[in-house]
């Protein structure tokens, strides 16, 4: 290796450690604008190369102001895991090993790591032991993989081979989703040739759970290929669909039940929270993320499919130059859409080994307890309304709840802006049931009780300031109006 290439690796390791050590004290938000960053990264196409170590130093310098605190302890803005060092360290090795994890012959250690982790995860999440597992780039692709298997199976039941003949001229596939469906499910259905407009939405309750009685009514008299998509862990409320009841209903009509369980599936790893995800095992496929609750580095997701044959038919890639392997040897390319792919199993293997069953359960339980703690603290603030029952790790609140809707929307958005400008924690605005809300997700391994309290206090301070500004404006306006 040339000196500068070797130095680049050492420089990266040093810079990575410095970043790691500083994550608790870094501001949660970005310090640079799109234009700042464009100027820093930009310039004409490089003509002559530069030494790799200098390039790496420069990269860290200019990227720094554009990095969010997603790997830090006070990022609550989205359901984003915190890239745990055990997984990241394995990921460093994965990069330097440069394995192409398409096949057993191309990457023997990677194939076996995936096979072992697949069995561990099925055990940890208590899914049907016959499940076959694909390691994807995230829940969007996990939804895609599972729904591709579903499409194969439900069409095969009516004598149509979708892998050979595609969807042109096929019997129609009916797809039911809850109103709370995540957009990534709709995207996956689009990729699979099932247009978004064809999807039938079933009414949800006030927590975003699919109403089983509405599904039952909608399916009465149904005939033909059927896929019903449930959700475990609503991105706003954390609510779980009643998957056992949904499955009973859909299976009466010979349907396939898929669950988008991007983060909710991990509740099954916890003795305290498992009851929320009861009945999930009755479904036929499950999409989950590992880069959310398991804290794996991006991009890591898992697709679990009960019918291993349907999974294989939907995803297998074969070619003469890829040697066939025995059935008990894993070729990773048979479980996900890609051929050449990253060896995702190494980081997962390292994470599960380093956290263990107990560590994963404790982490999930800790995050749920911290979410409750933050919700309780916030709800004590005057004019702060807690909008969900905090059963999992999601919290939604609204500021100025005593005012009319339009004003409360405005105050809520202003409060979120103020919180982000303070830089102590990162939270985001969203819309829930037509109203602006602030959404909190407690999901980073790095978050402590102290971080949760500090963030809750910062949020209340910001609200206090925004509310104070509003009252002052009102007072001035009144003074002007009445002299
Ligand atoms: C995050 C999320 C997804 C999408 O997952 P990606 O990993 O971003 O592809 C899908 N469904 C739910 C419920 C999610 O929370």
Describe this structure in words.
This protein is an alpha/beta fold and 483 residues long. The protein has 14 helices and 11 strands. It is 44% helix and 11% strand. A 7-stranded mixed sheet has the order 1-7-6-5-4-2-3, with helices on both faces. Strands 8-9-11-10 form a 4-stranded antiparallel sheet. Helix 1 packs parallel to helix 3, helix 4 (85-97) runs antiparallel to helix 12 (345-379) and helix 6 (139-156) crosses helix 11 (308-315). The longest helix has 35 residues, at 345-379. Bound molecules: pyridoxal-5'-phosphate.
Average pLDDT taken over every residue: 95
Catalogue the unreliable spans. Answer: none
Number of strands: 11
* Number of helical stretches of at least 4 residues: 14
CATH architectural designation of the domain at 89-352: 3-Layer(aba) Sandwich
